[in-house]
Amino acid sequence: MAAVAARELVDGEVVFVGIGLPNLACNLARATHAPNLVLIYESGAVGAVPERLPVSIGDPALVTGSLMVCGMADVFQLFLQNGRIEVGFLGGAQVDRYGNINTTVIGPYERPAVRLPGSGGAAEIAVHARRTLIVAKLSPRAFPERVDFVTSPGQRCGGRGRRELGMPGAGPVKVITDKGVLEADAATGEMVLAALYPGVTADDVQKGVGWPLTRRPRLGAIAPPSVTELRLLRDVLDPKGLFLKS
Amino acid sequence: MSMRDAVSRCVHDGDTVVIEGFTHLICFAAGHEIIRQRRRDLTLARLTPDLIYDQMIAAGCARKLVFSWAGNPGVGSLHAFRRAVEGKRGGALEIEEYSHFGMVARFSAGAARLPFWPLRNYMGTDLPTANPRIRTVACPYTGEALATVPALNPSVTIVHAQRADAAGNAQMWGLVGVQKEAAFASERVIVVVEELVEEAVIRSDPNRTVIPGMIVSAVVVEPWGAHPSYTQGYYDRDNDFYVAWEGISRDPDKLARYIDEFVYAVPDRAGYMEKQPGLAARLKAKQRRSDGVNYGF
Questions:
Q1: ipTM for the complex shown
Q2: Which residues pair with A101 in a beta bridge?
Q3: How far is CA A124 from CA A41, B95, B110, in A?
Q4: What pLDDT score was predicted for residue B87?
Q5: What CATH code would you report for B3-115+151-283?
Q6: Catalytic sites of A, residue numbers
Q7: By the 8 A CB rule, do B72 and B51 touch?
Q8: Percentage of chain A with pLDDT > 90?
Q9: How far apart are CA B27 and CA B273, in angstroms?
Q10: Which residue in chain A is spatially nearest to B95 when comparing CA positions?
Q11: Where are the domains positioned within chain A?
């Protein structure tokens, strides 16, 4: 997943980085095809060049050697709301048919069965980043037809599209999973199956999705991680297996 | 002033208390002293409640939590918080929830003494349903519907910094989060520093001053006061403790024993550090010095 996510990033882009797998993906991209990627963390580090894998989004290694460190009012107003972020990464406990994400509660809000951490910066990243990439492992519980709570808006919310709702960014364009990649359909806003990992069938993906998944007429074949990508991920970027363990 | 005196004078039952710092510079020493002084009915506000508010919730200090991301960064859950809000046992703790941008905007409004702050956000989300204090206003110039959040003006804000002079002019570097806005929004401000320096040191580098002494109520010198959070240039984040918190906080008895041993049974931060020999050597920061600049004219 980290390698597939890394390949989505274009050299020179400005990326709003989340912790965990997105962070690995961004640093892998920087070490391979996108050395000029500009990493911005919501903690205020701009142009970060972390010398160790940051365990948290506010790791001190994000500060050392970065281009700029600013306050969080600047991060959200001058970078994100200003439209400077080209790519945002999002993940979550639940992702639905239209790419709406839930990181707030499982069950009713007032008396949740599981209380998740909440939005953090995700709600505004989903609104403002020019495009977002969702990274999540497939399972019917993680991909319900409708999320229990919309924390971060996807392509359609309550039957209304992003433009109608006044959202500047294009929203989730791809969902990178552990079996294949879904893409937002331009006409319907629905997440549809676009590409498969080696040895995976469309039916395998459907088993992990809680709605009847539309399939693109021609499904792409995703190349497995190269020897270089694997070596960088395992030996250089995450040698302790902090985020690759799953 | 000692931490004991600063908390005794500035933090009262029923107050809205903000101990800010985004991962960096979170003043655990102040949180522990508030627990030791058995403050009650507090409204605790922070973007990321972190382990410190999990501990204060477990210790019975909090009536309400105002926040935008309640997890253990890079690890998982805050279990005392979860126990207080989940399922049938839930409801023990009142919550008021925003996103990070919303909380930042609340402090910005509070600091500027405005009643609210507009932002282009929350369309399509369920957050305004969960929290009716997130509203909208029509822009008087364009007619665009903008989201609004109300000002947050804490009773007291506690800010940890690398250094300050005796008057509380505080300098910090590294991630500065929303501390400036939170401090200016607050009725009272406690500045806690690793080192007390002469006024001349502050004046030699005025761009690094984030909190001016004129808004500060108390200055506390408390080395290692942010552990297990960190202070850039002084000590690293204790990631091992953040990982260990998962096991401690998951079990209410273990959590109570932790608070007994590391909060109630020690008189102050110096006592907390004495209990953990080897901590300082393990986490002490390496040298990565910045050249000064010429302020001449």
A1: 0.97
A2: A95, A152
A3: 14, 20, 21
A4: 79
A5: 3.40.1080.10
A6: 42
A7: yes
A8: 87
A9: 14
A10: A110
A11: 2-237
